[in-house]
Macrolide export ATP-binding/permease protein MacB (Allorhodopirellula solitaria), 409 residues
Amino acid sequence: MKIQHLIWKEMRKRPTPMITSLLAVTLGVMALVAIQNIAVFSQKKIAGDMESLGANVLVLPPNASLQDYYAADMHGETMPEEFVTRLAFARLPGVENLAPKLCVETSASGQDVVVTGILPRSEYQAKSAWQGLGMFASDVGSDRGCCSTTATSLAGSDDPNSLATERTIQDLGAREVILGSLAAEKLSAKVGDELPLLGGDFNVLAVLPEAGTVDDSRVFAHLHSVQELAETGPVVNVIEIVACCEDAAGSLISNLSAELPETKIVTISQVVQTQLAVNTLMSRLSWVFFSILLLVGASSIASVMFANVTERRQEIGTLMALGASRSFVTRLFLGKAVVLGVVGGIAGYAGGTVLAIILGPRLLSVSVQPLPMLLVTSLVAATLVAVMASFLPARRAAGLDPCLVFNDA
């Protein structure tokens, strides 16, 4: 009889201990795959968001948390809109653009959405007190900042789609909205449609192209319309600042802190470092969970194999009396371990991937896809653990003396 037939027969005759060992290995692999998968795609999301995010300095309320910047404007904390005027009058070197925002959760067409209030460029230009302050500088010879080239792309555009790439827009009416691609799909809305929001009716001015950021799920409206309809008063959640990179890394942060001591000033690099630290912690924890669960799995496999050797002493002795070599008996037990490892690795990879796909968007707003590389890691790790846990029981089985086995019987 071939060795694979013996292995299959043995596993069918004693399914309960095999399933217990298999479950322990599978859970360990699942934990590793799920957390590693989420961590990898979270880092990719950070890179994508950084590429599309024009602002590199944030002014936040003092109690706002930075654990997840992508939800930072949904922290529920607010600060006076008057802070924007204070920053404008301060004329701090290096500040190329100010973008106050207020986010409000509401429902539209039976769907939950987040409405983000923004100020268009025309609103700044309409404030006579701000004339001549140099906001939205467009000439390279400006003496406001120290950038080698000023933020000309941020000077505003008549095209509403500029909001996706330039982080600003020239005009936005009091009853007009711009939809992110996912928000438009969710609301089944298109350009020209009328959309009920916050108790008012808004006309869809544009639908932004997909950018792969949080903006895709947002509805953008005029800041003052959002404040009025949501009855929040003249407040904002965050002020995004586009600053010269050298200024953002230098004296600008201290100058902003001195100008607005009531707020929290952070740079995007700080936010990214915080998120990357969380990702690194998640990755390390995945290996900790993996090690603990696989240690439990290895103990379970070793226990099952030792018990199996004890129960099958006579069968093993009979096989050896019929001519089975010690290496054949060793391969018989290690073969079962390989089957457990391969099945556990595949099941753990599949379960961990599904878990990551489900939890990624809910926990970190991260879209997760299967990572084939983790399948290789799962198979190798699970198989090695199973084989190593079965090595001593296999050696013990191969060392049995048929004569002594039959005498004991």
Notes: The chain has 14 helices and eleven strands. The CA atoms of residues 85 and 130 lie 8 Å apart.
